[in-house]
Amino acid sequence: MAQVSSVPKGQTSPTSKSITLRISRFNPEHDESSGFMEFPISYEKWTTVLEAILDVKKHFDHSVAVRYSCRQATCGSCGMIINGKPRLACFTKISELNSNVVTVEPMNNFPIIRDLAVKFEKLFDTHQKIKPYLIRDDTEIQSNEKEFLQSPEEVEQYIQFANCIKCGLCNSACPTMATDSSFVGPQALAQAYRYVADSRDKGKDSRLKIIDDSHGIWRCHFAGSCSQVCPKGVDPAMGIQLLRGYLLGFRS
Amino acid sequence: MPRDEHREGIKGMANPTRYGIERVAYWLMRLSGLGLLAYFVAHIYETSNILRGQVGWDEFLELTQTTEGHLFLAIVIAMCVFHTVNGIRVMLGHGGVGVGKPARPDYPYEPASQNYRHKIGIYSAILLAAIAMMYGLAVMFGE
């Protein structure tokens, strides 16, 4: 595809360096295959990949499709493959990549909407499938205590997994997701553990029944790639193994 | 697999780079598993030659007495040792043993499940497989 050959004048500072930003372009409605467009980008040591992409949209090609919102690794919108690994574009500084060429592609294992934007329906469906809410017969409003008290130790059991921002990077890195379209995925499995480990929850059996499936938890082979790419320290691999402990009888 | 799912496929699954030694171990585990399965089938075929009598058995067994046969068996030894040792590590991990304890994560968010115990387990499996293979080669080649 085309290469843009000039940096807009007046956009660089004396401390800035430059890289070539390669952006994957693909529109499934009329493209047969994906290609790359290259843009020379000036950056400072604090410039993120998302800022570089927005720079391209502002100065070179406004048609580049990218999803983003908070720009602070909270909304989970800007997940993409950056130099071969799934990362959040807003959370990845160009300077830390140590490369003169930065290649951005849409996340693997997600259908492409256009360019860098992917569909999240499957991720949200599997997330919903494991019942991501507290299951119990009474409610805090009806309870005499008015709230379900937990000790700090009980909170520690699941709070790490409550940090999930549903960015989908774990599902993109997972080797099982690469080949099994029916696999629940590390995101949903980690969230299943988050609720099973919550002392307020009473829905353990129903959740374990959902994931105890040939395309469920048994498809995880503990490659650990999900944990390595998680931008919030959720560690889905740990959650999945601990969850499997319930099914194998190691935990109760 | 529908093209529009944008899955990495076998190529992505089998790529051992990008995600550290744990992904390499995953790849070797799958590879050695398939290799041992193939050996198991071949082994059944090999032992079935006993039905051809002493001569038929001896003829087939000579195949393993060649240089290529010795190298093949050495690879089988390595696969067997790696698959066993790494399998024990993975089974323990699957039971939640040695994967760390849940805790509030701190930046830069080093995953507790990818800890030194598992890394030692992986490197030990590779090292033991290499030693066993070298021992097997020494025995087979009579050094």
Q: Explain this structure to me?
A:
The complex is a heterodimer of chains A (252) and B (143). Chain A has 252 residues and is of the alpha+beta class. Chain A has two domains: 17-118, Ubiquitin-like (UB roll) (Roll); 121-248, Fumarate Reductase Iron-sulfur Protein, Chain B, domain 2 (Orthogonal Bundle), CATH 1.10.1060.10. Chain A is built from eight helices and seven strands. In chain A, the strands form two sheets. Chain A has a five-stranded mixed beta sheet with strand order 2-1-5-3-4. In chain A, strands 6-7 form a two-stranded antiparallel sheet. In chain A, a hairpin with a 2-residue loop joins strand 6 (112-114) and strand 7 (117-118). Chain A starts with 16 loop residues before the first strand and ends with a helix. Chain B is mainly alpha-helical and 143 residues long. Chain B has one domain (3-37, 66-99, 108-140). Chain B has five helices and no strands. In chain B, helix 2 crosses helix 4 and helix 4 runs antiparallel to helix 5 (116-140). Chain B is elongated. The mean pLDDT of chain B is 91. Classes of the chains: A alpha+beta (252), B mainly alpha (143).
Q: Runs of chain A with pLDDT <50, length 5+?
A: none
Percent range for helical residues of chain B?
A: 55-70%
Question: Mind describing the biggest β-sheet of chain A?
Answer: 5 strands, mixed
Please report the total strand number of chain B as a whole number. Answer: 0
Strand content of chain A: 5-15%
Enumerate how many helices of chain B there are, as a single number. 5
Mean of residue pLDDT values of chain A: 92
Helices and strands of chain A, in order, run as: EEHEEEEEHHHHHHH
Biggest β-sheet: strands ordered side by side in the sheet of chain A: 2-1-5-3-4
